[in-house]
Structures
1.
Amino acid sequence: MHNNGMQARTYLRASLLAAIIVISLKLLAWKVTGSVGFLSDAMESIVNVAAAAFALFIVRIAEAPPDADHPYGHTKAEYFSSGVEGLLIGVAAALILIEAAKRLTHPQPISDVPLGAAISAAATVINLGVALWMLRGARRLRSIVIEADARHLLTDVWTSVGVIVAVMLVPLTGWLWLDPVIGIVVALHILREAFSLVKRSVDGLMDKSMDDADLAGLQAVLDRFRSNDLRFDHVRTRVAGTRRFASMHLHMPGGWSLQRAADCRYAVEKALIEAYPGMTVTIEMLTSAQESLQEENAQMQATGTISYQVCTPGAPPQQH
Ligand SMILES: [Zn+2]
């Protein structure tokens, strides 16, 4: 975990350094040509720097070990980063839209296009290389912060490609409206990316379950233990950044000794943690006939009836 955090910081520092170089090149391309397209492209990269700096700060929090105030760890902090990053991309897209609209109503000629395009292309190649390198790292480290940052860089690459092509076509065709129109198309694409990042963040904050493949794998582990005696139900999972949590009921015959039941529970926990290293597993032991009170209450609220078999160990206190 700690090691993962250190590697995550290496990726984010590299992206920060790359962003500074890329912004300088893109601003140079704007200075050389006077193209508003290049200016809006540079503006998007400036958002990258702000986002990467924020991600660095957040990863530091996310990797902190669980403490008394946060006994489940701090990994959910990652979702703030992807949420804020999504919002920043959205703002950048809106700024590009505004610039493009201005350009559309007040067309202006641009100069030294081949030189400006070459400078911007060099910046784009740097961005693409760093983005692909980070995406590989994000998959390996299962880090949503690095993935968000890499996807952001990739949208930056698409913006740049669109802008470079549009700006190069302007002197060739004499169509001054082309630059802003392509800018608008690219901005809409970026807006969609922003939406998916914010959605991802909301999913995490709302305790979304593990994905379908992981859920199937978890059920396959439980299948190895299922028998006439053993039943699993109320299996719940959630993902918090790089951490996974699973809780479930393990129902078994009421006549078993506590030792036998505990051995069984231990074996299930061990198998689950072997399949999903680092997962936090909570297994509640229950008899075959009895359901937990909270599940009975939940069903009572949902349907107004209890279908679970209710057994009463000893006489309940009499109400007078
Ligand atoms: Zn149950």
2.
Amino acid sequence: MRLSAILVFGCIAATAAVDKSTDFGMRMVVDAYESVCWYEYLKQFPNTDNSAYQKCGTQSSQIQADALEEADGTEKDYFIKNLSSEMDKLPSDYEECSSLLASATPDYKKASRNDPLKDGGQKNYPFRGFSKCLMKTLEKRHGPQALKAVDDERISGSKSVTGALLERTNQWRALHGVEPLKLLKDLEEAAKEYTSELVMMDCKYKKSNSNHPNRKYKGKKTGEVLDSGNYVAFKFADSGYQIANNWYNEIKDYPFPEGITEENIKVYGKVSRFTQTVWKNTEYVGFAYSEFTDCNNFVTVARYYPTGNTKGGFQENVLPPKE
Ligand SMILES: *[C@@H]1O[C@H](CO)[C@@H](O)[C@H](O)[C@H]1NC(C)=O
């Protein structure tokens, strides 16, 4: 995915004929800004907030693209002004970096995208002060592991959607004091199979028939959770975190301590993805994620074994979060 982002950027640069160093500097600023936004609102656990992430996670790329359209010598000013106005979407500690945006130094010899992360004071690169300030503030707030996460996941982009989905699912499970789920190939295959079926279903998605052989493992019914949506789709691993967070956020409607009973069964439809996520007795999972190319949308299928959400099992299997 990173590759295509870079290619798109390359195209814009070629047609707009903007000073190359300014152009490159903007890319670095956008990277730094989005990385901070990502860590603060999506990666950081358990203080994740999908909607805050979506507010700052994409806008800066748009600003860069718009700035490049100007291509008449005002692009740098446009970029600085518009990006400054986005700074209030980050936690207030970052505010002090804003003033550095204006002191952009467009000249550079050679720079790479992770320079702000590894800045030892030697290299010069465009918008250096600003990007470096963001990274230093991130490190001050969350320690060196935050910079490492940015480097691993955003610069090298080594995590898949389903990898992030599993990681986040198990983080939520740990918060409820239950064992992590293990991936099972058979469940993954079944999930993939059903995903392909859904993709052929004309932009609609629906629960599978629970008697279908595809829903069985070792002769027993498996649990199913579905999702569809366009979660900042160009950053694939991020979609996995956001999907898991969305499912988990159904906790707000879950009736602790009595759980789902005959009386409040109406609530079930609003919380079933949360309850399956943290269901104690479930041990295995298989995830599949696929694009509905014609529908500008994405679909996720998850299968669980043993199945969660069994009648009468809620109190025992859905534990309250640990303090
Ligand atoms: C940049 O700022 C101008 C003027 O304040 C505004 O009209 C425009 O929508 C902004 N562009 C972006 C991408 O935020």
3.
Amino acid sequence: MHGFILLEFEKYIIKEHGFAVWNNISRKANAEGLSIDATQVYPDSIVFSLVGEAIKELDAEPGTFLERFGYALVPNLLKVYKAYIDPAWRTMDVLEHTERTMHHAVRTNNPEVTPPILEITRKGPKSLQIIYRSKRNIPQLGVGVIKGIANHYGELPKLHLHLTQTAEDGVYLIDVSMLS
Ligand code: HEM
């Protein structure tokens, strides 16, 4: 996983729960003293140990925890990838371009990084469907990212979102619409 995401995770835990909690989590995940560099790529196992220990330490529901973290990621995600985002775009446009533009840039900037494959189909002016495919099986993080993007554009109150698991492992449908 991209060091940027791992660094944001550390910042998120420290901001929400303090240094002592982060130290406990990283010790239990055998990642104490790990210095995180936003330009490096880390094994998924480190990220999953840290997330797993955080969920235990905070007695959190995994889906809700991932969604909150995804939501918290957005301001810096939009800052770092600003060059790829047309200022005229709003929530639905950003979502529509995520795979072709942002996740594509993530992959070409660093071939070791593997964001999920999102198959995005515009269903109408105010609705689209995202098919999420990833062996990491964490679509709730994406749900949080979508809500964070809508919040960024002041469109969160109008956002309607539905996550459905499919019969295939690691494949989920995310239906998104904007109510008028
Ligand atoms: C501004 C738009 C976005 C940017 C710049 C962005 C960027 C990134 C980056 C850098 C990663 C780390 C990849 C890795 O380390 O392998 C990532 C992962 C991820 N992205 Fe995005 N993303 C964006 C929008 C979205 C959206 C709309 C979704 C909605 C489904 C999404 C879902 C995810 C998920 C779930 C992951 C975690 C890895 C996985 O599940 O395999 N992203 N993204």
